[in-house]
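Technical appendix A lists one of the benchmark inputs used to test multi-chain prediction within the project. The record comprises two sequence entries:
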Amino acid sequence: MEIYLIIMLVLMILGSVHALHTKDLISTVISLGIVGFGLVISFLILSAPDLAIVQVVIEIITLAIMIAVIAIATFQLEKKQWRFSFVFYAATIVFFTFVVLLVSSRFSHILSFFGHHTTRMADIYMKSAADSGSANLVTGIILHFRAYDTFGEATVLVTAVTGVLTILRHSGKKNKN
Amino acid sequence: MIHPHGLTVVAKKVCQFIAPAIFLFGIYISLYGHLSPGGGFAGGVIMASALVFQVLVYGSLLEKLRKEEWRLEIAESVSIFSFLILAVLGLLVAGTAIFFGNFLPVGKIGNLVSGGFIPIGNLIIAIEVCASISLIFLALLIYKDEE
């Protein structure tokens, strides 16, 4: 299990390094998408499916909005060396798709089938609910059995606020000049 | 756009009575999260709505709001960091040795002080959510007016 986690982490680090060093804004956003979707599979490996679902939704919305904003702001067609870059990009896409499909197919059994429910974890929760010492069962689950999930959700919120502040503060400064 | 000097005197007086009650209700929801429905996220959003209500009624004077924004940024960062410290404390204490292990005594189920670190975690989450949502609201106000 840990080797898959390491693979995903290396992918995410490569994506973030590429996002820092590239000049095109669109490719920055797309390589940040590699980081986000790698995070989704890492959450799935770490048995936090709720967090993975939240992260998928947030990542898709963020990616769509960022691409729309950047495409409106700085859209220009560039002529490059077509043949080499086409082969390179196609090979990269096939490779990363293969890696993501391999890792996610190994761990997709954590999620239940579409339309089915799992009682595997619910039984454990119901039996050992008194261990958390919380009269409210949901809070006991959120902050005791699934405190890691809660921590990730709070981190998602902090990241969102950081993004909002960064974008808005930048535009405010630009308007002042 | 929100008027910089706020609404009339009647609205301001009503806000003086209602906004502390809303804030107190948010604290109650997050403190009693381990006894009654609610918890950190819901309580934090309620606490943030008190601030939004105040800004709507009292107007958006930029100097005051900028000071508030600075404090809220510190509160947000400190709260998420202290939640991580809470997790690492559960890892370090010899009895639990688990990430997010419940290292405090559980107590009697149903009391206000029970459940180990669950009320503390609820309170930290509430502060974090309140600071985040207020920050987004203030950022949309401040940076638009800063032109």
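Chain B touches chain A at residues 33-41, 73, 76-77, 80, 83-84, 87, 99-100, 102, 106-107, 109-110, 114-118, 121-122, 125, 128-129, 132, 135-136, 139-140, 142-144, 146-147 (CB under 8 Å). The two ends of chain B are 14 Å apart (CA to CA). Comparable benchmark entries are summarised in Table A2.
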